[in-house]
Amino acid sequence: MRLRSVPLGVVALSLLVIIVALMASARSFAAPSAIPAWLEAHVGNGDGQISQVVLERARALYLKKVAQGAVRNPCYFAMDATRPGDLGNGVLGRRYYVVCEASQSFRAISSGHGGGRNLKGTVDFSNGRRCAKNFGNAMDSELTAGGAYMTREAKTSFKGFYRTGAKQDVAFQRTFIQFDGEGEVANARQRVIGGHAAQVLRTMCMRKTPNSSYADHDGFVPFGKLVDYAGGRSNGCTSWSPADAAQLISMVKDNPTTLYIYPESRDIAAVASGRSASGTYWNASCLKEIGKPKFWPRKMLEPVIAQYKKDHPAPPAQPLPICKEP
Q1: Please, what is the Cα angle at 143 between 139 and 145, to 5 degrees?
Q2: How many Å is the Cα radius of gyration of the chain?
Q3: 4, 51, 108, 194: which is deepest, by most CB within 10 A?
């Protein structure tokens, strides 16, 4: 049986058609799904809105983890740390986002940013209450680092007792959600970065309460004043108001999801250099206030912090004083 010869031009044309079809298929597979109209309505740079680049990256991270089978949670999180945390007159900026596409739910809430540190006489990488200028991923830097995270296990710790307005002593237990990061934020667990309520006990002392299940071997329990710092800064963690924290923690406990924090170091470098990079932005009011943002990489900052600790050793830990009974 003789095979019919096919003109070379026909073969080339057929191959071209196949290649174009494969390329189109690859593009459609790789391209992220379009943002639904209801969610697009929340996109913008005003308070309570989410900026386009932040949503696109947060959504791409979530869809990737869902496709990998790493996430089954119907909701995901995002944070825009370039926005102001304090709008003045007791109003907090809403820059942390909870997106649940299945139920078409979008919420914008407040969140703290890393306060950084001022190593006096050495280097100052501290942040103000309103806007963050300094970012980084170094140990003990207390800075926010942008990038891709996953929520992980929840750990609840007893911090001590505090007194309510009704003169009742209440045990303060705070839940911490550990984050795991990728790339530049892969050391999130090492840095103990996670999310929790913006509450802490201050002015601590020890009170004799021998019948308490929390009492030490001498019958004392720690006691302090409960302080809400939702309008302040954190040690690099994501901190929420107590009410928001309770809701968010319940959403991700035993059901992990993704959190994308903007900006990454590449965004900071682009803005600081004045380049108009595609997909990069900064909140206009904060940029005017801080001038140029700065990213402090761990390889550069960690040796500086270590040397400062060596040169300025912390004083020996002192036992808490005994409370003066009211």
Answers
A1: 90
A2: 25
A3: 194
